[in-house]
Amino acid sequence: MSEHLRIGFIPLCDATALIVAVDKGFTAAEGLDVELVREVSWSNVRDKLNIGLFDAAHLIAPVAIASSLGLGHVKVPIIAPFGLGVNGNAITVSPPLHAALHDAADGDIRDPLVSAKALARVVAQRKGRGREPLTFGMTFPFSTHNYHLRFWMAAGGVDPDEDVRLVVLPPPYMVESLRSQHVDGFCVGAPWNSVAVDLGIGHILHFVSEILAHAMEKLLAVRQRWADDNPDVLMRLVRAHRRAAAFVEDTDNHAEVAAILAAPNRIGVEPEVILRTLDGHLKVSPGGAYRDDPRYLLVGREGAGRPDPIQAAWLYAQMVRWGQAPLSAEMLAAAKSVCRPDLYDAALAEAPASGEPSPAIGAFAGPAFDPNDIEGHLAAWTIKRDPAN
Amino acid sequence: MAPTLNIVIVDENPIRAAILEDGVREAGYVRVTRIAETSRLLARIYAIDPDVILIDLENPSRDVLEQMFQMSRAVKRPIAMFVDQSDTASIEAAVDAGVSAYIVGNLQKDRIKTILDLCISRFNAFSRLQGELDRARSALEERKVIDRAKGILMKAMNLTEEDAYTLLRKTAMNENKKIAEVAQSVIMAAELFK
Fold first, then answer.
1. Which residue in chain B is spatially nearest to A166 when comparing CA positions?
2. Averaged pLDDT, A274-296
3. Torsion angle, CA of B87/B93/B97/B99, rounded to 10 degrees?
4. Nearest-angstrom CA–CA distance, B131 and A87
5. What is the pTM of this model?
6. A182 and chain B: CB distance < 8 Å anywhere?
7. Sequence-ordered strand ranges (E) for A176-312
8. Domain with B117 in it: what CATH number?
9. φ and ψ at B103, to 5 degrees?
């Protein structure tokens, strides 16, 4: 008899491995009868996973960590045996802000350090003229988008809490908010940056892969307890995802994958827009300029499927840096243990990849990240908050 | 009862919001504001300065409310969601019904519990109503289909209305199908033979 599972997801390109695993029958081949449930908010995905309405979920990595640490919400230990996506976000700005950054830049604004310093100058000019601070949209208080925006602008000298406003916006509302000038820019996953460019209301300023070479984004998340109670189902789920990720990464399959994702009950946008994300070939300005980065979104490649505790440590360090979490060795250990490469290895009956070092975070600024020295990471920055109590 | 709480209902569905507002008012709470349009939601909520915020789970703006936890310096009072480790049954019932509550300030738990229970029952009642409405609609649709099929059979086979219906029913029984399904096939066949 096949096992019935309910899995929640948010309509984003980094749910690809999950959607393909189900819609291409890879989960069915493992004897799993998966019902995919499209959700509208990360709060819903988190709550429904936490209370057991979902068996598993497409979850933004910092929410899994926050839930395990009990930050901002109920403490429910969450683990991830599979990584659904690495990178894939982008920072998009309005045409006026793009022009202002261009004018203020001391060099090529495609370089994130140049653009961040240009932002600092634009912020100072606006302050001098008594204008409202710039407003940036991101998806959730505990989100990669929040941390990516903050990391980028703070490296240029912009204090994300004092100099600009950061507001939470649900991904499907980002584009409308940019059009109505409620925000001057945003950081969000695919396909929303491309949608803004196509409408002529936004310029993609940076792919997040330019800010951090390797940034864990979404996880296949389950409750620790559910994993303990259903070890065999978990293994089958991981195997189906691994097959799906390999299928997605074969460029010959991109058109088919884009068609699957474009369905109204999946992501529901034009397949061509999704294809740009999969191909890493993105239109970045309404004028028609394209930028290529095959590492724009990684699904399974470069070890993206194998959840990396170092990535969890980096995200925890950002929570501490911005005053969302206290700094403690216990919390660091709890954050790291959200990522379970051991379960990934067990499911695939592969020898643990201990010989291969994890890919580095590869940030464009600051010293290399040491997952065992969060204090050292924080000491490298002047713009930061006091850790939470 | 202390009906002085200031309550905000965030729901894009006007009927459900009205049902909920009625319930809250019946329970003696008179300061109730409904917000259907969710642009600049936080600013509007800060202006109203509510004690309790009720939001439906189909509303993507729930994530916007979560930001209030992180921005305590922007609000006058602390904000908590109606969840704590000891009360999982309540939150399960609420999420299942499709509603969530955020509490501003330090309200007594039993007071918010009353409101949340009320939300749950009103949301469930709304779902039942919606279900009945859907069923009534599809029953009406089925009747239309059956009437059309009867008309086709009467004309093509020169039957009375009663005989046409009997034929549909007999075929449905033999084929182990619903009468409406057989009627649909009749219509489709008639379209093909046009």
1. B67
2. 94
3. 0
4. 42
5. 0.84
6. yes
7. 185-189, 203-207, 216-223, 281-283, 290-292, 297-298
8. 3.40.190
9. -110, 135
